[in-house]
């Protein structure tokens, strides 16, 4: 009933263990060209690739760093005697879409070729290091990294919210307590069945003196996201400083 | 040489004219389920669907509004007695990725089924209206809209930057003037060949008194993006107000 492409989309899971095998140039080219073909606002993206390096996670042969790139845009506008006047916040809201659509196309292309992929979300917080490492000019923000290679593991797909917790017709509904609880339950039971966090040893520690009563027997998705967004990244100034270090000033033009 | 999925990715072009034909429920479900299966940080998304409405652009039978949804996250955290402490800027940088990966999967799924799609980027600036229209709670930001239906036109794919203007190995290069000019030329000539802006009658007017010397004979991509980002959205406060109206306060926690 499902075509090949939808079967590819439906079977996505992140791969965190790779064969020690290089990716041919023509496959890398296919992946990036498929990424480039995504719909765009203004092609506000660049991709930095690393190959066969020790610092690529999970032993993957290739890592792509997908960046929001306003630098190229400004260069081209300069050549036409135009100044970039749009504020950096608006540019980011569009540019992150450009970069993300491209990244997701790269994932789909790679997976359709039998390759595994894993996004790394860390650049949002470590952008300064990547700017230095890759010699990024101002107004290039490394948004996300993507490792690609031949899978050396075959994990199941992760659970998702029930469809009626994601798709709404005509208006956003009022959720009953029961509906929220059901979504939480499906996510939590799904992750526990897969023993997801134990396998990754990915429990987030509790800050401060609180003693942790959770073990991998009951630590699951909603506990994990609560610890993540309930303990980390409280200070907006720090995120602004990261953006500023990359040449994005949310006050510019004010 | 290319598999079915990569052929689908490579043949993407936006469709702006649709047959007057409804989309079966099961096709809508397939599209949204494929979207939901994208990699995520924390499933920070919701989708509002409209069907068979006069206000859907291009006569398409279905329009999806893909939102960054922190409201559901906070609701679930409340149930676990956790406060959301991450700042809104960081949440947006991750949440926009969640929503975009989902949106792009929806595009690919739809196109693999022979359907046409077109993103509408306007929500970034008109989010307040959509919040009211769809009764969105605070901390739900409508990021992008996507119309889907049976194509009633068959336009060519749009040009893209040369690959060596997008993909770099190990470090961001210094561009020669020639390289920038070549990228601009390829984009501009490609758009002119397709008569892209004339067909859409999409020329952006010049602000102020400047007389416009461009006609659809020479108005092309780099002129278009220069007029867009060189004339619009200068004030960061206005973009912040739009986000604030949707419950995102970039200073919260400061």
Please explain how this structure is put together.
The structure is a homodimer of 254-residue chains. Chain A has nine helices and five strands. The first copy, chain A, has 254 residues and is of the alpha+beta class. In chain A, helix 2 crosses helix 4 (88-112) and helix 5 (123-134) runs parallel beside helix 9 (236-245). The model of chain A has no long low-confidence stretch (mean pLDDT 97). The interface between A and B is large, with 114 and 113 residues. Strand 5 (167-169) of chain A pairs parallel with strand 1 of chain B.
CATH topology of the largest domain in chain A: NADH Oxidase
C-alpha termini separation of chain A: 54 Å
**Would you list the SSEs of chain A in sequence order as H and E?**
HHEEHHEHEEHHHH
Largest interface, Cβ cutoff 8 Å: A-B, 114 and 113 residues
Q: In percent terms, what proportion of residues of chain A is strand?
A: 5-15%
Low-confidence segments of chain A, given as residue ranges, are none
Name the CATH architecture of the largest domain in chain A. Answer: 3-Layer(aba) Sandwich
Q: Helicity range of the residues of chain A?
A: 40-55%
Give a concise summary.
Chain A is an alpha+beta fold and 254 residues long. Chain A has helices at 4-10, 25-36, 71-79, 88-112, 123-134, 177-194, 196-200, 221-231, 236-245; strands at 45-51, 62-69, 116-120, 140-149, 167-169. Chain A contains 9 helices and 5 strands.
């Amino acid at each position: 009933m499902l075509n090949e492409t939808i079967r590819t989309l439906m079977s996505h899971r992140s791969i965190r263990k790779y064969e020690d095998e290089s990716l041919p140039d023509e496959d890398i080219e296919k992946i990036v060209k498929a990424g480039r073909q995504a719909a765009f606002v203004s092609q506000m993206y660049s991709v930095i690739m690393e190959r066969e390096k020790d610092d690529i996670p999970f032993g993957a042969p290739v890592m792509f760093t997908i960046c929001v790139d306003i630098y190229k845009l400004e260069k081209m506008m300069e050549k036409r005697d135009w100044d970039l006047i749009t504020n950096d916040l608006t540019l980011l809201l569009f540019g992150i879409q450009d970069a993300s659509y491209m990244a997701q196309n790269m994932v789909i292309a790679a997976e359709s070729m039998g390759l595994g992929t894993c996004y790394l979300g860390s650049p949002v917080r470590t952008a300064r290091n990547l700017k230095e490492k890759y010699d990024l000019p101002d107004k290039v923000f490394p948004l996300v990294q993507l490792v690609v290679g031949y899978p050396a593991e075959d994990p199941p797909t992760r659970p998702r919210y029930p469809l009626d917790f994601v798709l709404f017709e005509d208006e956003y509904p009022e959720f009953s307590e029961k509906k929220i609880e059901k979504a939480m339950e499906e996510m939590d039971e799904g992750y526990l069945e897969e023993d997801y966090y134990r396998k990754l040893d990915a429990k987030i520690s509790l800050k401060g003196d609180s003693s942790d009563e959770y073990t991998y027997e009951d630590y699951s998705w909603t506990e994990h996201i609560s610890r993540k967004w309930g303990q980390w990244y409280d200070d907006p100034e720090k995120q602004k400083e990261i953006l500023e270090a990359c040449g994005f000033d949310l006050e510019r033009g004010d």
